[in-house]
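Below is how a single chain appears once it has passed through the pipeline. First comes the sequence as given, then the structure the pipeline wrote out for it. We keep one example in the README because the format questions we get most often are answered faster by looking than by reading.
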Amino acid sequence: MTPPPPPEQNALFDEPPPDGPAAPPAPADAPAAEPTAPRPARRPRAGVEAAAVDDATRTLAAALPHGLHLGTSSWHFPGWVGLVWGGDYAESRLSKEGLAAYARHPLLRTVSLDRAFYRPLTASQYAHYAAQVPAHFRFVVKAPALVCDAQVRAEDGRGRAPNPAFLSTELAISQFVQPALEGLGDKVGALVFQISPLPRHMLARLPELIDRIGALLSALPRLQPAAPGGVIALEVRDAAFLAPEHAPHLARTLRAARAASGNRVTYCLGLHAKMPPIEDQLPLLRALWPGPLVCRWNLHRRHGAFGYEAAKAQYEPFDQLIDPDDETRTHLARVIAGTCGAGELAYVTINNKAEGSAPLSVAALAEAVTNDAPGQGDS
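Resulting structure:
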């Protein structure tokens, strides 16, 4: 059986599909009782305007290391007016039409398509996104819960039954990797397999589960040459994966998946209150060196493991940094500088719930990166 898509537990992305229903037709003209002047041709509605960018921001973007792609988790937030948008727009319009304006910002070189977690996207949907962004832009895409969640979940997010499709190689390829490659092509950045929180009985048999994850990642098709910058990343939401008795096994498994698949396979730094802080996750990343960096900075730790709604309530409309996390930013900037300085790729996306405003977090992180590593030109 195929499990239904889970509820939006993390409230990360709720935009409607780009190929949703068309707008209702305009009402027909009333019958003319007397001659009327012909209607002028209807002017097409202008697209979403991008915010003006100052010279300092352009200079900062030009100084970023080669191979670094910074961005946010989605783009549909009206509160980003003046930061990303050049005017006031409704969320629904930004969801459908805002990506092109977003991608014109010189610091925003990637975005996380988190909606793919809730329902697999088609190749045509991916192609719709790819057509809106410049050549240098790359997408970070979450694999569907169909493959990455061990449980079929009820509306409240609680697991109600085992998911028989969990870690299915066939579905991972047909419902995720192949459509993403076909639709995004060379704009594939990181394909992220985020393993949802596991039930206790599975955590008790973690070595066996790590082997299953390794078998899946090893069997994925090679992303290159169709996607020269493509990376496969594993993100977890259970700290047990990083425990001393399991982390070495996980590192060996990811290295073996690299060798078997020919892909850049790595561990995704998941900066989330369910996980240890960044400094405690870095040993696993060091065990995979050399290799690319994938990081998703999702939620400030002060809100706790289930704090998305609290963060949203405090931070909306996401137009200022409410809780600057200088410690995390400093660690992350050093990892980025070291990774890109060695010629490796880095994909980093930031959620509004990390500090209060994802675009401002990106700008602050970019400043920190340039302080750690002299610019190497645009990527």
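The CA atoms of residues 79 and 317 lie 5 Å apart.

See the next section for the split statistics.
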